[in-house]
Amino acid sequence: MSEQSEQIVNLGERSYPLLIGGGLLQKNGILDPFIADADVFIVTNEVVGPLYLQSLTSLLGARRIDSIELPDGEVFKTIATFESIIDRLVAGRYARDAVLMTLGGGVVGDIGGFAAAAYQRGIRFIQMPTTLLAQVDSAVGGKTAVNHAGGKNLIGAFHQPSAVLIDTDTLVTLPDRELRAGLAEIVKYGLIVDAEFFAWLEAHAADLLAREPAALHHAIRRSCQLKAAIVAEDERETGRRALLNLGHTYGHAIERCAGYGEWLHGEAIAAGICMAAEFSVRLGYLESADVARISALLAALELPTAPPSDISVADFMAAMSIDKKVIGGEIRLVLMHAIGTAEVTADYPSADLGALLAEQLGR
User: What's the pTM value of the predicted model, to 2 decimals?
Assistant: First the structure.
């Protein structure tokens, strides 16, 4: 993919660029503006490291460079893994002017970013996402976290990167299942704020699955543009940014109840989006024809459109109730009024939510 573009996450003095294009990990000097002569510590995993770590280190020139390869998978997104990064930073006597780089998918970015946020009360970090899901979602916006047995991403911090380097060539080695999981987050953007983009996705679903370069670049660029605008408006999710959680309260419950790693995050979000759409219809907000379009697009992208049927309503509700979107004991959900228009609210009959779960989980 030779096309290149840049987006800016506008946060005043903490603004940073999202550099998007093919071959960026081969482009000498691209990281120089963000690292100066700092020591660098790279967090990657055992799958991505052998593929791209050498390319990254070759961009860094003559400086102190160290790295850690984490085990791969959501099941390792834990405090114990976080501590292993901190232990290495401490043992290496890294100072506050060091730069931590994350090279991998969402798990690597979330854990590495949290380590950067916590070490010496915060050091600079650069995100280099290598999965589609991380490129369009988790690497952008400064959310960092690890999971807890009680829920997903319950322990973390907001810590914005200095830059996000999205080398789209890394998608060549991405397994098909993980590519599809990333497409779920792309669909989300169309549903919450951009009906025209949703229609474009309907027309180009086959191109995206086939990894057609121009289609992937457009989908990544537009997703990053939409997320950057929302984050700039509401960095710490006190208002509009919560729209980005469409389907996530349901999806996180699926991940927890099924066992972390059984469902990929994007797969759970796809099913959660369909649940959110069905609930929006139940409340009279969304037309059934729109639900059909949503389900049809997700199915065309070979994503789940329903949750697993072996989870009890009680377990599912318990998982939802500990989600980060709960405020004052009320579960806030994203509801759709039309494709491209959504709102966040806790103002809905709890009985209707119970009925939805009984219907969806009792298939």
Answer: 0.95
Known catalytic membership, residue 147: no
User: 282 catalytic, yes or no?
Assistant: no
Q: Which of 180, 222, 248, 324 is catalytic?
A: 248
Is 302 an active-site residue? no
Among 69, 74, 178, 237, the active-site one is: 237
> In the chain, what are the domains?
4-173 (3.40.50.1970), 176-361 (1.20.1090.10)
* Residue 91: C-alpha distances to residues 18, 63, 69, 359 (Å): 32, 18, 16, 53
Q: Give the CA distances from residue 26 to residues 6, 77, 131, 152, 218, in Å, rounded to whole numbers and listed in that order.
A: 17, 29, 18, 35, 21
Tell me if residue 178 is catalytic.
no
Share of the chain above pLDDT 70, in %: 99
Q: 164-179, pLDDT tens digit by residue?
A: 999 999 999 999 999 9
Amino acid sitting at position 170 = T
Concerning whether 330 is annotated as a catalytic residue, the answer is no
Q: Kind and range of the H or E element at 213? A: helix 213-233
